[in-house]
Amino acid sequence: MIRTGVQIKAGVFPPLWRWEADLEELRDAGISLIACPVPWCLVERAPGKFDFSLFEDYLRTAAERELRVILAPLPEPPVWIQERCFDLPEYRTALLAFFHALAERFGREAWLDAWRLETLSLAECRCPESIALYQKYLSSVFDSVTELNTRWHRNYFSFDQIPPETPECLPDSPETMSYLRFQRLREVGFFKEIVTILQQCGRPDVALFLPPRMSGLLPEKQLDIAVAVEQDESYAEKIAVLASSSETFCREGICVMERSPEYHADSPDVLTPERLYRFLWNSTAYGAKRIVLGEWDKDSQFNQLTSDDFLFDRRLDVLRRYREQSEKAASLLENWMPESGTVAVFRSRISERLLQVKGIYLKSALASFRGWVRSLTFSSTPFNVCSEESLDVLKNKKLLILPGSPVVTSAAAEKILDFVRDGGILLCEPECGAWSSTGIALRPDSRFIAEATGVLEMARMVPESPVMKFKSNKKMCALKTGPYVVPLHVIRKYTEVLIPYRDGTALAESIPYGKGKILLFGAFIGASAAVGRDPELEAFLNSLLNVVVPKINLISRNCRVVSGFSGKSRMLFVFGADQTEKIELHFRKTFWKKQALRDLISGRRITVSGAGSIRKIKFVPDPSGVAVLAEEGVRA
């Protein structure tokens, strides 16, 4: 069953008598979880002397009222610890001792629901111990300094000479890229140690919430992923990215953690009851098993969930209503899983490290990724986000989008091209694979797309027009070029020019490759939706999806749909406008097995009509604009 909760402010508890009354109020509103931080500095007052008495009475009181607890260790060191680098043996031993003591004290309590680790991070350090560890890492990667010099085009005499940053006088960045990879592996090792301690000292069924950047990096562990979001217009796609990540989709659960209400000080209407209700159902639609709202402190002027203002009672009513409705559909929601669809978006972890080094030059790639995700989310297209480690997901896909990924390893390139040879469609933005994994810029003729197709990219230039107009599957499209374009060479009688450019070049080409085709664009077309929705990009995306056989056609453009299954039963989450408006959706004939649906929120019966290969429904959702549709007769 989906559980809702609130976060407790670190180290701030009311008097115990008021705490008991507050817990009763929260439980009555449907809250079943509290997330409680445990700062290191409050439990270890002297070296090796741990005292958890500050928390014990409050946690026991919560357990007596049948509330489960998510404990969040906060590694804020005590004042007697001066050096705070994890690579220092003294600090490392003390920090791990804190986690060990915490797990020994609370790890086997029946009320413990999860360990919240998504707020943890390992700070970068340039102390002599860290640099020595980095240089030792290099010696394990390369057989000798000679091999390193050959691959990096350097002239070092020993590993001890190698700095963590590339000198500014050099054009490429192998030192910096390697140091970023080392930091990544260092942080993965840190989380592995923490997870091992918590699992060995505590109950094995206690969940562990990790940050999204750890998704798929601890394959031997069964872990959940927690995502922190604000209730703004972009939170839906943030959750969608996490839910659609191939690693998360196949293995990990999701916990949505709302950011602290202090972040909402400039937006006093952000936690209105209506938005709170949609936030809860949005999180449910993308597969969240736990939804934990922002910090709960009745004395805080920013806390709009529980502060005593004129919307207080209405917010509690929303929580009660969500609890009642989700309990009625508990069996369906318990097994609910969003479907992965036939579209994938490539997100290169190595490219993200390169973006840290070349951020100004390569920021268009990251903006384009955001734009494609927003367009896929709001055009109600199921998709997967895949990385270098999860390209096997392409076996079930028909369209792969490469949003200007600057680094594409040879192994990833081989799998991507195999996908196209087998009949897939590859949409490739400019400068994909333009850099090596060590941060060295590659010539246009040595990039994997050029080697596969023979089409070369030219240098960036200012576009003649801000809009590119062309036909896609007999539909006219107009896409924004952005601040610059990358013209493409044309190979006559081989490439189909979609958007001609000057001097015999093109801004878009279609190239046959095996049983599939490659769509090359000379502009970061996804970047137009990085900040807000772009209807033209969504229209182009829909024209592409017509080729890969869409299951849902949004006739009403004012809604968003998340489709999936509960067991073998089809379900649909529909999010219409805030105002109640009629929604019309068209489906393929085989989408629904039955001709009648039931809205689990409003309780209304909806008839599936239509003839031929198209089926359609028309209905008005409840005033919130949210509907959860299941086939009539399926037990909730």
Please give a handful of descriptors for the protein shown.
636 residues; alpha/beta; seven-stranded mixed beta sheet; 17 helices; 23% strand; flat
Helix/sheet category: alpha/beta
Question: N-to-C terminal Cα separation, in Å?
Answer: 12 Å
The order of strands across the largest sheet is 1-2-5-6-7-8-9-10
Q: Strand fraction band?
A: 15-25%
Task: Characterize the structure shown.
The structure is a single chain. The chain is an alpha/beta fold. Helices cover 32% and strands 23% of the residues. The strands form six sheets. The protein has an eight-stranded parallel barrel, surrounded by four helices. A seven-stranded mixed beta sheet has the order 13-12-14-15-20-19-18, sandwiched between helices. A six-stranded antiparallel beta sheet has the order 11-22-23-28-25-26. A hairpin with a 2-residue loop joins strand 3 and strand 4 (49-50). Helix 4 (89-106) runs parallel beside helix 7 and helix 8 (235-244) crosses helix 14. 44% of the residues are buried.
Strand and helix map with partners:
Layout: E1 3-8, H1 16-28, E2 33-39, H2 40-43, E3 44-46, E4 49-50, H3 53-64, E5 68-74, H4 89-106, E6 112-116, H5 128-141, H6 145-152, H7 174-201, E7 207-210, E8 224-229, H8 235-244, H9 246-251, E9 253-258, H10 273-285, E10 288-296, H11 312-328, H12 330-334, E11 336-338, E12 343-346, H13 349-357, H14 359-378, E13 383-386, E14 399-402, H15 410-421, E15 425-428, H16 448-453, E16 467-472, E17 475-480, E18 496-500, E19 506-513, E20 516-521, H17 535-545, E21 552-554, E22 560-566, E23 569-575, E24 583-588, E25 596-599, E26 605-607, E27 614-619, E28 626-631
Parallel strand pairs: 1-2, 1-10, 2-5, 5-6, 6-7, 7-8, 8-9, 9-10, 12-13, 12-14, 14-15, 15-20
Antiparallel strand pairs: 3-4, 11-22, 16-17, 18-19, 19-20, 21-24, 22-23, 23-28, 24-27, 25-26, 25-28
